[in-house]
Amino acid sequence: MTADTRITLVRGDITRQSVDAVVNAANSSLLGGGGVDGAIHRRGGPEILAACRALRASHYGRGLPTGQAVATTAGRLDARWVIHTVGPVFDPHEDRSGLLASCHRESLRVADELGARTVAFPAISTGVYRWPVEDAARIAVETVRATATQVEEVRFVLFDDRAHEAFAARVR
Ligand code: ADP
C-alpha cells in the first residue's frame, strides 16, 4: 500500500458492497462454485459468467492458475468490476502462503490496471479451501501493506465474527 491507502474492515456480505471492484474467491475453472463465488454470480447475474466463459475460451483453457487474478464486468453488482482470483487449498504439509499472498498482490495489480480506487476482498481460501482464518488474515494484511498500489481503500469484508476478529487483530 502507500501512505494514502486505508485498510477497512466490514462484517457482512461482499455482494452488497458499493466499491469499484469486488474480489472473488474463485476456483480455477472460472465457472462458479460455492461460497463467495456462488453469491457473486447469483447477485451479479449471468453477465459475469458469460464474461468468465469468454476468458476461459480466449486465455484460460486450462483454468486460471492459483495465485493469479483477472477482471470481468460486475454485472448487476454495485461495482464496476469483479476481480477473480484463485486461492490455494490449505495443505498442512506444504507451505502455500506465497500463493495466498500472490492472490492479494495480483488482485491489487489488476485493480491498478483498471483504475479501481476502492476494492473489497473476502477472506480468500478460508472457506471451502480450509485455510485457518487467523493465518490467512496475517498473510492478507501483510501483503496489502507490502504492495505498492494506487488503491485508496482496501476493504476486507468478513462474513462471520471469527473472521472479523482475526482481521481486526492484524489491522489494529
Ligand atoms: P475459498 O474457496 O477461497 O475458501 P469461500 O468462498 O469458500 O472461498 O470462502 C471464503 C470466505 O468467504 C469464508 O470465510 C466464507 O465464510 C466467506 N464468505 C462466504 N460467502 C460470503 C459472502 N457472501 N460475503 C463475504 N464473505 C463470504
From TrEMBL:
Any Pfam family hit: Macro
EC annotation from Swiss-Prot or TrEMBL: 3.1.1.106
Keyword Manganese included in the entry's annotation: no
Macro domain boundaries: 1-172
Keyword annotations from UniProtKB, A to Z: Hydrolase
Molecular function GO terms recorded: O-acetyl-ADP-ribose deacetylase activity
Coiled coil, from the record: none
Entries under InterPro entries matching the protein: Macro_dom (IPR002589), Macro_dom-like (IPR043472)
Protein name: O-acetyl-ADP-ribose deacetylase
Organism: Streptomyces chilikensis
